[in-house]
Amino acid sequence: MDGMIQRIVPYLTTTDPAPVRDFYVGVLGLDVAMEDPVLNLRSPGNPAAQIIVQRPGSPEPRFGIDVGTPDAVDASHAEAVARGLHVVYPLTDEAWGVRRFFVADPSGSVVNVLAHAVTMR
């Protein structure tokens, strides 16, 4: 694979993201980086330090792994398919600027494998 892991981001699931947002922003000082389609909270001093807050749905990734480049996403997807892993969300270019797919790891945890079309700062 030609990419390099940029970050690994945990995902929280809740039916009411407002109090979760208030906690992480008010108590821990995170910034809101995105509110739709998920709530993305990040450290003001280290934008790679993030938490994603999602609403219940299917599939629900447990965490995301940013593999660095869209080509690395394609390579990871090809390897997952070659290994017969369960791809639970297809390879997709999202409107908000990421290329991604979801795959179930051998433990059954769903992983969002992604890269931004534009490098994060």
UniProtKB/TrEMBL annotation:
<keyword id="KW-0560">Oxidoreductase</keyword>
<keyword id="KW-0223">Dioxygenase</keyword>
<dbReference type="Pfam" id="PF00903">
    <property type="entry name" value="Glyoxalase"/>
</dbReference>
<dbReference type="InterPro" id="IPR029068">
    <property type="entry name" value="Glyas_Bleomycin-R_OHBP_Dase"/>
</dbReference>
<dbReference type="InterPro" id="IPR004360">
    <property type="entry name" value="Glyas_Fos-R_dOase_dom"/>
</dbReference>
<protein>
    <submittedName>
        <fullName>Glyoxalase/bleomycin resistance protein/dioxygenase</fullName>
    </submittedName>
</protein>
<feature type="domain" description="VOC">
    <location>
        <begin position="4"/>
        <end position="116"/>
    </location>
</feature>
<dbReference type="GO" id="GO:0051213">
    <property type="term" value="F:dioxygenase activity"/>
</dbReference>
<dbReference type="InterPro" id="IPR037523">
    <property type="entry name" value="VOC_core"/>
</dbReference>
